Amino acid sequence: MNMFNKFFDKSALSANKHEPRTMRVKKLTYVARDIVTLVLEPVGTAKVMPPKPGQHILLQHPKQAGLVRAYTLVSILNKKHYQIAVKVDPTKVPEMSMSAYLAQQAQVGDLIEVTGPHGTFTPSSELRSVALISAGIGITPMLAILEDIIKSKQKIEVSFYHVTQNSQTLPFTKQLQAYKKSCKEFLLFFTKPLLLDIQTNAFDVAGRPVLNDYLDKFSTDTAFFLCGPNGFIYAGYQSLLSSGIEMERLHTEIFSGLPINHLLAINNDEDHNFTVCFKKSNKKTSWRRCSGSLLDVCDNLQLNAGASCRQGICKFCQCRLLEGTVLESGARKGSGSDNILLCQSTPLSDCVIDL
User: Fold this and answer.
1) In angstroms, rounded to a whole number, what is the distance separating the alpha carbons of residues 150 and 157?
2) What is the pLDDT of residue 178?
3) Residues 153, 84: contact at Cβ < 8 Å?
4) What's residue 125's pLDDT?
5) Residues forming a β-bridge with 82
6) HEC string of 233-299?
7) pLDDT at residue 116 in the model
8) In the chain, what are the domain boundaries?
9) CA distance 122 to 309
């Protein structure tokens, strides 16, 4: 998929900053039952690197060297700090999970190493129509994009669709209500509405969206941005593709797991169990489809692969494939090929990697 066309903001690339900086936790706030926001401010005289809407920053776990996770910026208007949102999962332990650490242990005043902003999930200002389609924590980049379009008074027609369980899991309700009137269409889908939600008309549609039902509302040059759980993104992507929407008009932001082209390539294949060895680190593990990309495997093994953008752009996670075959960006690569990008690769056989 060619991301660098008229639908996406090429200047987002030049905004990438790879030097780590120390930032301080300024504020923590629960904005939904299972979502907490953190405001991070620079230490001393350092300044915030200006982000683009839809971009993310990378946070280094303060107690686990090499454990790095990406978090989308939910707003880019404040030039003095970053604001991120973290999904709370009580089944994860803070020592092994960055999100669990931020949600359960981080306190105001804590110091965290940050790099970024990174990413190209940014609509081009030349667009005339966008559809922002999200589920769960996938609302975070959409909020920043929507906010930027409205506040900067861009002449872009926006259709906004978000899926969540109910009012208790819906974050940023005040902002959403304020932005609703600026959208061509604004729909909230509740999959498990509460009685109070029904009584107060807190949502628009019960259940999940069938995107094909809304295609007549979009112009022929509408760009679609999808973010959320892997299954949600895959279903939406496939639905739009099968309806005749060109691939260059579709853009996805996947927080973890397989890149979209891998989901398309292997969806109908049987699941496999391959052994992945990292030679220099002397570590070995089993890979299945649920394991995600090879970079996700590195993260789970706490191997520092030098990842930054996680989209195959920065090339920081490039490694030599010593043995085996992988699928990289939809193409097969063997051990005699050039280096592979771990964030874009999944095994097609047992593999040995030079890391």
Assistant:
1) 10
2) 95
3) no
4) 85
5) 40
6) HHHHHHHHHHCCCCHHHEEEECCCCCCHHHHHHHCCCCCCCEEEEECCCCEEEEECHHHCCHHHHHH
7) 86
8) 16-118, 129-264, 274-353
9) 14
Average pLDDT, consecutive stretches of 10 residues, N- to C-terminus, the chain (355 residues): 43 53 95 96 89 91 80 92 92 80 94 89 91 96 96 93 97 95 96 97 94 88 92 87 89 70 56 89 88 84 72 76 85 79 88 94
Evaluate whether 62 touches 111 at the Cβ level (below 8 Å). yes
Residues in the chain: 355
Say which CATH class 16-118 falls into.
mainly beta
Q: How high is the pLDDT of residue 170? A: 97
Integer angstrom CA distances of residue 203 from 163, 197, 282: 10, 7, 52
Residue 4: per-residue pLDDT? 35
Q: Assess contact for 137 and 255: CB atoms under 8 A.
A: yes
Domain 129-264 falls in which CATH fold? Rossmann fold (3.40.50)
The CATH number assigned to the domain with range 274-353 reads 3.10.20.30
For residues 308 and 117, what is the distance between their CA atoms, to the nearest angstrom? 10
Q: Are 172 and 31 in contact (CB under 8 A)?
A: yes
Q: What is the model's pLDDT at position 334?
A: 87
| CA-angle at 207, arms to 132 and 267, nearest 5° | 70
Residue 43 class from Cβ within 10 Å (0-12 exposed, 13-18 middle, 19+ buried)? Answer: exposed
Residues 3-33, buried b or exposed e (16+ Cβ, 10 A)? Answer: beeebbbeebbebbbeeebebbbbebeebbe
Alpha carbon 253 to chain centroid distance?
Answer: 4
